[in-house]
Amino acid sequence: VTLDVQAACRDTTVTQELLKEGFHRDLLVKVELGEDAGGCAVAARVRLPPGIYVDPYELATLQQHNLTKAVLFPDVIDVEAPEYLARDLLLLLFLEPEARCSRCFRAAVPLHARYHRPAEGTGEALVLLESPEVLLCCCHSHLSAECWEPAEVDAPCSSDNTSRCQWHSTKRRPAYEELMLRVPVGLREHNSLVCALTLLTTGLCTGLILAAACKYGHF
Predict the structure, then answer these.
(1) Residue 180: per-residue pLDDT
(2) Which of 136, 172, 173, 180 gets the highest tally of CB atoms within 10 A of its CB?
(3) Alpha-carbon distance 147 to 172, whole Å?
(4) Is 5 a domain residue?
(5) Alpha carbon distance 175, 12 (integer Å)
(6) Which domain, by its residues, includes 182?
(7) Residues 126 and 206 occupy one common structural domain
(8) Which residues contact residue 198 at a Cβ distance below 8 angstroms, ignoring those fewer than 6 apart?
(9) Of 29, 44, 4, 12, the residue nearest 148 (C-alpha)
(10) From which residue to which does the signal peptide run (predicted)?
């Protein structure tokens, strides 16, 4: 019986890719289901570590132009916080079907790296991005109980809908691939130099402002 169930539940594949370079990247998620979605909503649940974040204001703008559909938990975050003061985020990214493949879905979302503490001996910090979890929401059809199980996700069926729906995840976990994001950081041995240059620049700019105020100001 186990062999029959395994044969019926075909594998789902998940791939993710980071596009662009530097602090501002695009995360591309692609999913190929083991079976036809049958009109179900397909999403990827992405856990973002403290070193990266999605800008909620940018996400809202993209959704207004129908470029990206996603729900961010929590929906209010501090985009200026450094990595060591931030916390994990949860992103539910709704995937769009591909034209040439009925079982293939994809979506992209902008990611931003946070500033990290200066490191010693290396000019970069490593941020591990785990592979997303594939979820299906079938409001008008039923999924096989042998292949899919209810997932603990308190989220709507789509980014345009506020009503909560029952999401499902596959019982046969796909092979996950982790991504490693390399974030440029400062070097600890440069602290004294940076502080001295900052103090010098601040004093010079302050002097220029005071000189201009004395010359052109009206007191």
Answers:
(1) 84
(2) 136
(3) 7
(4) no
(5) 8
(6) 13-186
(7) no
(8) none
(9) 12
(10) none
Which has the higher per-residue pLDDT, 79 or 147? 79
Nearest to 107 by CA among 19, 12, 48: 19
Centroid of chain to Cα 147: 27
How many residues are present in the chain? 219
210 and 171 both lie in a single domain: no
Cα-based torsion angle of the residue sequence 183, 189, 192, 193 in order, rounded to the nearest 10 degrees: -70
Task: Give the pLDDT of residue 172.
Answer: 65
Cβ neighbours of residue 29 closer than 8 Å, sequence gap 6 or more: 14, 15, 16, 44, 46, 93, 95, 106, 107, 108, 132
Evaluate whether residue 104 is within a structural domain. Answer: yes
Q: Say if residue 153 is in the same domain as residue 192.
A: no
Residue 180 has phi, psi (to 5 degrees) of -115, 115
- Terminal C-alpha separation, the chain: 91
Give the DSSP H or E segment for 199: helix 191-216
180 and 195 co-located in one domain = no
pLDDT score of 114: 92
Instruction: Give me the CATH number covering residue 164.
Output: 2.60.40
For residue 108, give the 3-state DSSP assignment: strand
Q: What is the pTM of this model?
A: 0.78
Cβ contact 31:42 at 8 Å:
yes
For residues 31 and 105, is the Cβ–Cβ distance under 8 A? Answer: yes
Give how far Cα 155 sits from Cα of 28, 135, 136, 170, 180, Å: 21, 11, 12, 18, 28
- At residue 175, the pLDDT reads 60
User: At 216, phi and psi to the nearest 5?
Assistant: -110, -5
- What's the chain's average pLDDT? 81
